[in-house]
Specification:
The complex is a heterodimer of chains A (349) and B (436).
Chain A lengths: L1 H22 L6 E4 L4 H14 L6 E3 L3 H8 L10 E4 L5 H9 L5 E16 L6 E2 L1 H8 L2 E3 L8 E3 L5 H4 L10 E3 L5 H15 L3 H9 L1 H9 L7 E3 L4 H10 L4 E5 H6 L4 E3 L1 E2 L6 H5 L6 E9 L9 H9 L1 H4 L4 H4 L7 H13 L6
Parallel strand pairs in A: 1-2, 1-3, 5-12, 8-9, 8-10
Antiparallel strand pairs in A: 3-13, 4-10, 4-11, 4-13, 6-7
Helix pairs in contact in A: 5-7, 7-9, 8-9, 13-16
Chain B lengths: L1 H5 L2 H52 L4 E10 L2 H4 L7 H6 L2 H13 L4 H8 L6 H11 L7 E7 L2 H8 L15 H12 L3 E5 L2 H4 L12 H32 L4 H13 L4 H15 L7 H25 L3 H9 L4 H29 L3 H5 L4 E2 L14 H9 L6 H30 L4
Antiparallel strand pairs in B: 1-2, 1-3
Classes of the chains: A alpha/beta (349), B mainly alpha (436).
Chain lengths: 349, 436
């Protein structure tokens, strides 16, 4: 039993040393949350660290759900100060926060992220509708691709099967796995958006909500949709190698690789900076971060970081986050959140 | 076989001889085939390894180089030192980035906001620091116009290194025509240079590819490994010695042995969950700290050290123990004076291999918050830090094109580290190895 007891001694010894170290207040802001917001928050944090007297915040990419869980776990130096999210906080998460004593939360909307369906520049740009996307990728579709048809496992093999105006290319879409926030957003915005166009399915929403969600969010598993991992760079590389395939990823990757891939037109709108900003492009979502007010004053620099983030130089129309692929908010909404950076109003749900 | 029995012996003899010869031929052929399979398998593995290494080096070697451009900048006295007083404190605080931007705009006079951004986007956002260092080194230059070498932005760097094709149509190129025109002009004037990227080895992480370095992650890995070694080595060796030399052989020790062997096969993420529950939530140790990372990895490495340690102790011949006992040594003396020193090379090999494994680990660190963006170089085991494999993962996930080469560059550094550790294991084994 030597191993166990000596291990306990060692753990206890190290732990004691650690606890005394931790008792001293933290001097770095801790941020957790969405991997979609991560590339933007890190840029702000780095510039904030270099341009102010405060230390550079430490940012973890935990996913929106994981981040909110950590954020709502409590108040104190062991809990993060800010969490990023690629969706709005849920009522249940908000309640969890309240229960754990995290009372004052301020919400900031920072901009939009478009999700694109792209293919290699070697191939022709596709013009799709959300309905086409649903029919091509859903697990079950109405028989004959017609409204009111019986729901059957997706029989569509080529894009031509989905919509006669599309080329007779095999359906092959590379996209993120179910653990990804991008996938959730894609299912909600693109698939459900197309799914709702079928009146018979839309009617389900009222009668059988569960089934409606399963039909509209279910992605086919017969090989037409390839889960290509969380790495969007990899998807871009694969698209280059295979001009017949399509890929689903965030707008910033399209922006960075505009020499290799092109975004398909969805519902008549090309995924460009301008179109997403004007909210014309249908497959886009809002990005947020949440601040724990109880930590302001305890951890140095939180208020200053928030103001640096909401500054026009960062998230404004011509800000440096735009260069990184963040699509800014429309002016009116942006003003509201800029003001919030000074007043820090409580979020109410 | 039943019809051979039915045959008559006179016919059987020549037939049997023939069959034996044929069977022998088949057996030889089978052996030959087996050898060919083996060689093909090894050849395939080697080809794959060669492919992997060549692609990594091919993609990554350019990360060790960085493009610099020489910029003419007017070091305006009233902007650097508004009070007119020139001392270090004033010089260190001035906003050189803005000064650089203004100099560029004055010279090339771009029209419109977008064009201005494209122009100032030619140089790195960290260029101001280079100008500051230059001014601090020779304060007399304030008020004059100087030509200073500053790093180019990542996009320009990629273009110069050939990562972006200049002949593409403008719409599908990240570098626009006006930027390309200025760059071509600079190149003609000899104002563009590619130098060794020392920053890659001295700086921490950054979201600007041209400023990102591996040093922060290397330091994090170093602190983590120190904690792992300090915990795992003494505990592991003590456990191995006790179990092998002192412990009675009974059910309890058998159970411990089985458990240690099982622990060696537990997926590493489980140790991360344990670390989250025990070290972070119960002992309230800081998140993202190499201290906790080292403790978690020590738990993961322990079974490897114990198992290899026991094997090394077992390999010491009993005659040594018996001779020592014969001379009147106590059990402790036999162990500490003879058995343990003789088994040390084996134990060390096992430890180094265990450590090398821990060095490449990311999954358990995810749970304790070491998968994070950390710019500052950690100064000790309680500072927030990340480790090398995590850094590589974070770079691989970044949208900026220039991070592709950084990823491979990071892999080269990690591989060099691992090869050094494994080479050390081989040297130690060869040096102290004894044949009985």
């Amino acid at each position: 039993m030597l191993k166990k007891s000596s291990l306990m001694v060692a753990v206890a010894a190290v732990a004691l040393g650690g606890v005394t170290a931790e008792a001293v207040a933290r001097d770095k802001i801790r941020i957790v949350g969405s991997s979609t917001v991560y590339p933007f928050a890190t840029v702000v944090a780095e510039r904030f660290g270099k341009g102010s007297k405060f230390q550079t915040p430490v940012i973890e990419s935990t996913g929106s759900g994981g981040g909110l869980k950590l954020f709502c776990a409590g108040v104190g130096v062991n809990h993060p100060d800010i969490t990023n999210a690629s969706r709005r906080i849920k009522k249940s998460e908000f309640n969890n926060c309240q229960k754990n004593g995290v009372k004052g939360i301020t919400e900031f909307k920072i901009g939009y992220d478009g999700i694109v369906i792209a293919n290699s520049k070697k191939a022709k740009r596709l013009t799709l509708t959300r309905k086409d996307i649903f029919l091509a990728l859903a697990k079950v579709v109405p028989e004959g691709n017609k409204d009111g048809g019986k729901l059957i496992p997706n029989p569509n093999k080529t894009w031509k099967d989905v919509n006669p105006s599309l080329p007779a290319l095999k359906i092959e879409v590379l996209g993120p796995p179910p653990t990804s926030g991008t996938r959730d957003a894609f299912a909600e915005l693109a698939l459900e958006g197309g799914c709702k166009k079928f009146k018979s399915i839309a009617a389900l929403k009222k009668t059988d909500r569960k089934k409606y969600k399963a039909v509209c969010h279910g992605v086919r598993e017969d090989g037409a949709y390839v889960e290509a991992g969380e790495n969007d760079n990899l998807i871009v590389q694969k698209l280059e190698a295979n001009p017949d395939a399509l890929g689903v990823f965030g707008f910033s990757f399209l922006d960075q690789n505009s020499d290799k891939v092109q975004g398909s037109i969805v519902d008549g709108v090309t995924p460009t900076f301008e179109n997403i900003s004007a909210q014309k492009y249908p497959v886009s979502r809002s990005l947020f971060f949440y601040v724990k007010k109880a930590h302001i004053g305890q951890i140095p620099g939180i208020k200053e970081y928030v103001q640096a983030f909401m500054d026009a130089k960062a998230s404004g129309n011509d800000g440096y986050l735009g260069d990184k692929g963040l699509i800014p908010l429309p002016a009116g909404e942006y003003k509201k959140y800029q003001a919030a950076a000074k007043t820090l109003p409580d979020l109410k749900m | 076989m039943s019809d051979t029995i039915a045959e008559t012996p006179t016919v059987m003899i020549p037939d049997q001889k023939d069959r034996i010869a044929r069977r022998l031929g088949r057996r030889h052929a089978a052996e030959k085939r087996f050898r060919i399979y083996g060689i093909v398998a090894i050849g395939f593995a080697l080809a794959m390894l060669a492919f992997l290494l060549t692609t990594i080096v091919w993609n990554g070697y350019s990360a060790f180089f960085k493009t610099y451009v020489q910029i003419e900048i007017h070091l305006k006295k009233d902007e650097i030192a508004p009070g007119g007083r020139i001392d270090r404190a004033v010089l260190a605080k001035a906003d050189y980035q803005t000064l650089l931007r203004e100099s560029l705009i004055e010279k090339y006079k771009p029209e419109g906001r977008r064009a201005r951004r494209r122009l100032t986007g030619l140089v790195s956002i960290g260029a101001g620091e280079y100008i500051r260092d230059f001014v601090l080194a020779n304060p007399s230059v304030v008020g004059t116009t100087q030509s200073i070498w500053v790093p180019a932005s990542a996009d320009i760097d990629q273009l110069v290194k050939g990562g972006i094709d200049r002949n593409l149509p403008e719409t599908s190129r990240r570098i626009k025509n006006d930027q390309l025109a200025i760059l071509t002009r600079w190149e003609k004037e000899g104002r563009v240079e590619t130098r060794f990227n020392t920053g890659f080895f001295t700086q921490g992480d950054s979201r600007e590819p041209e400023q990102a370095g591996i040093w922060g992650a290397l330091a994090g890995s170093f602190f983590t490994m120190i904690v792992t070694l300090l915990l795992a080595f003494p505990i592991g060796v003590a456990t191995a010695v006790y179990l092998e030399e002192f412990a009675p052989k009974n059910r309890a020790t058998d159970l411990i042995e089985v458990n240690i062997n099982n622990l060696a096969a537990v997926p590493s993420i489980v140790f991360g969950l344990l670390g989250l529950a025990v070290f972070l939530n119960f002992f309230e140790l800081p998140r993202s700290a190499p201290l906790v990372g080292g403790m978690v990895l020590a738990l993961m490495t322990l079974p490897t050290i114990i198992i290899s340690g026991r094997a090394a102790l077992k390999a010491v011949p009993p005659s040594i123990r018996e001779a020592a006992y014969g001379l009147g040594a106590s059990r402790l003396q036999v162990t500490t004076h003879h058995v343990l020193p003789l088994s040390m090379p084996g134990i060390m090999t096992g430890t180094i291999i265990g450590m090398a494994q821990a060095l490449g680990e990311t999954a358990p660190l995810l749970m304790i918050g070491m998968v994070a963006f950390v710019v500052d170089i950690p100064g000790g085991p309680t500072d927030a830090a990340t480790v090398m494999p995590v850094q590589i993962f974070l770079w691989a996930d970044s949208p900026e094109r220039a991070f592709v080469e950084k990823t491979s560059g990071g892999i080269i550094v990690l591989l060099a580290f691992l090869i050094t550790m494994n080479a050390l294991a081989i040297v130690l084994r060869k040096r102290f190895e004894r044949r009985w």
